[in-house]
Amino acid sequence: MADGAPNRTFTLTLDATLASEFEKTAREAGSDAEGFLFDIVVDTLAHRHLGDLRTDAARKWQDEQAAAALAEYDRTGEYITLEDWSAELKADIRRRLDAKS
Fold first, then answer.
1. What is the pTM of this model?
2. Are the beta carbons of 10 and 20 closer than 8 angstroms?
3. Would you say residue 2 has pLDDT above 70?
4. Cystine design at 31: which of 10, 35, 65, 91 (Cβ 3.0–4.6 Å)?
């Protein structure tokens, strides 16, 4: 959300079947329905090139993390492949979901 902009509320009405499936999908993603829907909206807007929707703090943190990772690569020459990173991420998500059940 844009920093300092007033919030607006939107209502989304789903039938019971769709709502149940949506809530199940949100839980599987490690989120509640509202947070999951918010992420979908933000991702959709970002993909439509409506600008960077991250907060200044999030942008700064991500830039710092990227700079640190690049410095580590420059120093060591070591890196992690996308496939390995993805496998680690999936395993971490699965552990978190299993811990919630």
1. 0.43
2. no
3. no
4. 35
Domain count, the chain: 1
The number of angstroms, rounded, from the C-alpha of 7 to the middle of its chain's C-alpha atoms is: 20
Does residue 4 belong to any structural domain of this protein?
A: no
Site of tokens 């999908």: 25
Owning domain of residue 27: 16-100
Whole-number CA gyration radius for the chain: 18
pLDDT in tens, 21-72: 999 999 998 999 999 999 898 888 777 766 676 788 888 999 999 999 999 9
Q: DSSP characters for 66-77?
A: HHHHHHHHHHH-
| Residue type present at position 33 | A
Structure tokens at 86: 């993805």
DSSP for residue 49: T
Phi, psi of 61 (to 5 degrees): -60, -45
